[in-house]
Amino acid sequence: MEKKRKATAELLGVEPTNDVKKQATDSSMELQRSTLEPILADEYLRTVDTVAVYIAKIEDRRQTSRLVKSLSDALPLGDQQHLKRVRCTGEGMDIILHAVKGDDLTGTQTLKGVLGETFDSQGLSAEVRVVQVPRHPPLTRAQFEQSNCLWPTQFHEDKHIARVLSGKLFSDQERATMENYMALAVTAAQESRALEWRWLTPAPTGCWRSPWEMGNIL
């Protein structure tokens, strides 16, 4: 019988000891040394995905406002509304014409071929290029900084998400309270596993439930 108990204890990962309180204390100390990690939707954690667009250089800056308005009316950015239409570089100003359709990723195109014969392209260079720009609007500061390296991007920071990612959502007292709740849950689980070892029969796993607003344990 003793051999069977030891085998069961080894299988369950439980030492054949009655000192459950000591295990709970050790678990509590380990929890207090831990770091709380936020669990967020994938879109908050993803790297910057890109989409190809046609751009042209603005050769006559006096035409910039007219070109932005004309392109916005004729060829709106659609799913890329988070992008600024124009970017300034050391070599001048570039403007997004429209997204590349399908697999047409040719490095150079003619302006007329991209905009059509009827569009007033005065002020634009004749050469068109294909570049990669951010596909999705940035949801975090890190995504915004990565996106801006590709193309100027608009960003409206969610203060709540920013606090979550920076680890400032909870005060030190709130963190200590949560860690205490977790320690209680670990203690309940260890006591349950100890019962399994003693009686060699399945026992319910204990847990603690506490409404955060009340601070009471149910």
TrEMBL record:
UniProt organism field: Ixodes scapularis
Region entry Disordered, spans: 1-29
Domain of life the protein comes from: Eukaryota
Name by which UniProt lists this protein: Putative subunit of trna-specific adenosine-34 deaminase
